[in-house]
Design a protein that fits this description.
Order of helices and strands of chain A: EHEHEHEHHHEHEHEEEEHEEHEHEHH
Oligomer: heterodimer
Distance between the termini of chain B: 48 Å
Shape of chain B: globular
CATH architecture of chain B: 3-Layer(aba) Sandwich
Radius of gyration of chain B: 19 Å
CATH topology of chain B: Rossmann fold
Largest sheet of chain A: 7 strands, mixed
Shape of chain A: globular
Strand content of chain B: 5-15%
Number of helices of chain B: 12
Structural class of chain B: alpha/beta
Number of strands of chain A: 14
Helix content of chain B: 40-55%
Largest interface: A-B, 40 and 43 residues
Distance between the termini of chain A: 44 Å
Chain lengths: 326, 327
């Protein structure tokens, strides 16, 4: 049964299950991954299939979840550490940035850290300021780490399997409001997508939209609205913030000469800032208009539904940004 | 427990003298500007390091914080390669990319010195988890300073090791000060080993509270850690404290306003090397000349290490950019 539409949640589950069946060294540790079945139900049934040795519930201790997983990776295992939400990963920044990402370099290649840290990102669920961050760009700042964020079930499965098989530490970021999105996914144990490859999600000649994660959803909706006005948007899904693959962006920009970067991050020092800088460095001769950015408002997210939506990006905001350029 | 033979005792003496001479030379090289960054000397703590490391097999594991030269030497890392690391040379144990605080040798299961207080404690738990997962007969000996017992990493790592019965000996090298803050100004529990009670139950589950050792007595440390290692091998985590004293500042350039000269002098008088020398001369007749010979040899080893380091190549641009990722 090939290419059945499945959800991102199912794709993540399948990727984890297949890789755990494939390699005994792969195991999962984190809060509520076992008996509970994962707070987003991604690891439901795993405890029964793989047992408590390989599906390990931990205390609520993000520093040691990330740090012990790093140590286990250094000594021959291939851990998948789950940090329930990326907001809690702030507690583990030292373990992730100073240790997981640095021990290989600092000790001149003596250590290898084949580690995946899975976590969920994003606002839009009325959880207030501390529980609603989309800060994956922070992790992309640091060499030594890879940072991936899928926007479809197809990507989720192929990217997560690649992350698990890779020998470098990977922050694998899943958007908590997109887990039910469906797409066709190859039913193949060796379906793996390369790390650090962007993907054109929609073709068009008038404007290049560079985005990732939830931004892909807003951008596709915006493109459909723009099409009614005769504007064809090309959408490049970065998929990986590190390694950052801008070749498809450059190729698209040569054709459109206009670019909008769409992301849920805060507006200062974000992915848009990086991409815009790279475009002016490398594509200056192709530039026909200022590069626009659509991001969250520069302030904490509120609880109240309407206010929260006001502060987040949207398809309408993407449409408005594009219309300033074309 | 088997009583160590004469050659073993002499080897402990040799290691302690090597560490002392090595550290004295590092201080000089730092003053000359040949060593950069931070430099944390192990002077005064030699008995703890040598006694504890001697309790391990080759398969067991060591991990520590940034005061790591002494433990690296005790574990048998090449003094030449350690000194080369101090001087930032490509022949250094970490290729000149780690420096004084970041010595490691994976083949010797010496997992490194780490510069962030407490940052290595979860790594120790993870290495122990891998041992348990693979059903290996190995133990992790995780050193930390007294200051590390107040950081969140300590709590989370010790608790996880207790929940999962991980084979770790957690060893607090209590040298009385976390930088310049005395233990009783930083910790609610001044007998730091009592922290084990927070991770243990009345029925014996969880962390074992180990002994408070005389960390200036190499034999006492060896015996205490040997028992702790056997406990950890069979049962799970144990917390041990070694009472020691650092005779130099926290790092180079420490004005030491937090303690008196008299206090330091009192520990110099009872320093671990002189004390062990006395034990040996009382135990074995006519051993003085043998000890003097070792003293001279260790001076030569350090001279040779400096010579090796000075004559080694500097790292290259290729070294600068290598090992950020696995290719």
């Amino acid at each position: 049964m090939a290419d059945t539409p499945i959800t991102i949640r199912e794709a993540l589950s399948a990727a984890l299950r297949e890789e755990m069946r494939r390699d005994e060294r792969v195991f999962i540790m984190g809060e509520e991954v076992g008996v509970w079945g994962g707070t987003y139900a991604v690891t439901r049934g795993f405890l029964d299939e793989f047992g408590a040795k390989r599906v390990r519930d931990t205390p609520i201790s993000e520093m040691v979840i990330a740090g012990a997983a790093t140590g286990a990776a250094m000594y021959g295992l291939r851990p998948i550490a789950e940090i329930m939400t990326i907001n809690f990963a702030f507690l583990a920044l030292d373990a992730i940035i100073n240790h997981a990402a640095k021990v290989r370099y600092m000790f001149n290649g003596q250590f290898t850290v084949p580690l995946v840290i899975r976590t969920t990102t994003g606002g839009g669920k009325q959880l207030g300021a501390t529980h609603s961050h989309a800060p994956e760009v922070i992790f992309a700042h640091f060499p030594g780490l890879y940072v991936g964020i899928p926007s479809t079930a197809y990507d989720a499965k192929g990217m997560l399997k690649a992350a698990i098989r890779d020998d470098n530490p990977v922050m694998f970021v899943e958007h908590s409001t997109m887990l039910q999105r469906r797409s066709e996914v190859p039913d193949d144990d060796d379906f793996v997508l390369p790390i650090g490859k962007s993907d054109v999600k929609r073709e068009g000649d008038d404007v290049t939209i560079v985005t990732f994660g939830k931004g892909v959803e807003w951008s596709i909706k915006a493109a459909e609205m723009l099409e009614k006005d005769g504007i064809q948007a090309e959408i490049v899904d970065l998929r990986w913030l590190r390694p950052l693959d801008l070749e498809p962006v450059y190729e698209s920009f040569k054709k459109t000469n206009r670019c909008v970067i769409v992301e849920e991050s805060l507006p200062m020092f974000n992915v848009g800032a990086e991409v815009a800088a790279k475009l002016q460095e490398n594509m200056f001769d192709y530039m026909d208009a200022p590069i626009k950015r659509v991001a969250a408002m520069d302030q904490p997210l509120p609880y109240s539904r309407d206010l929260e939506l006001m502060a987040l990006p949207s398809a309408e905001k993407v449409v408005a940004a594009v219309k300033e350029l074309v | 427990m088997a009583t160590p033979n004469k050659e073993t005792l002499l080897d402990w003496y040799r290691q302690m003298v090597l560490i002392r001479r090595f550290e004295e030379r590092c201080a000089e090289l730092y003053q000359e500007g040949l060593i950069g960054g931070f430099l944390h000397l192990y002077i005064g703590q030699e008995a703890t390091g040598v006694g504890a490391v001697s309790a391990l097999t080759e398969k067991d594991h060591i991990i520590t914080a940034y005061r790591d030269h002494g433990l690296a030497l005790a574990r048998g890392l090449d003094p030449n390669a350690i000194m080369a690391e101090m001087l930032g040379k490509r022949t250094g144990v970490s290729g000149g990319k780690g420096g004084s605080m970041h010595l490691a040798n994976r083949d010797l299961h010496f997992w490194g010195g780490y510069g962030i207080v407490g940052g290595h404690l979860p790594l120790a738990a993870g290495i122990a988890l891998s041992i348990q997962y693979q059903d290996l007969d190995e133990v992790v000996l995780a050193f930390m300073g007294d200051g590390a017992t107040n950081i969140g990493y300590f709590h989370e790592s010790l608790n996880l090791s207790a929940v999962w019965d991980l084979p770790v000996v957690w060893l607090i090298e209590n040298n009385q000060y976390g930088m310049g803050t005395a233990v009783d100004r930083a910790s609610g529990a001044t007998e730091l080993v009592r922290r084990a009670m927070a991770y243990s139950s009345e029925n014996g589950r969880g962390m074992k509270m180990g002994p408070r050792l005389d960390g200036m007595d190499v034999q006492a440390v060896h015996d205490g850690i040997s028992e702790a290692v056997e406990y950890a091998r069979k049962n799970g985590p144990i917390l041990v404290e070694s009472l020691t004293y650092r005779l130099e500042g926290h790092s180079m350039g420490d004005p030491q306003r937090y303690r008196t000269k008299e206090e330091v002098e009192s520990y110099v008088a009872s320093g671990p090397i002189g004390r062990f020398r006395k034990v040996l001369t009382e135990k074995y007749k006519n051993i003085e000349s043998r000890l003097d010979e070792i003293d001279a040899q260790m001076l030569q080893v350090v001279d040779d290490a400096v010579e090796f380091a000075r004559n080694s190549d500097d790292p290259t641009y290729e070294d600068l950019i290598s090992h950020v990722y696995v290719d």
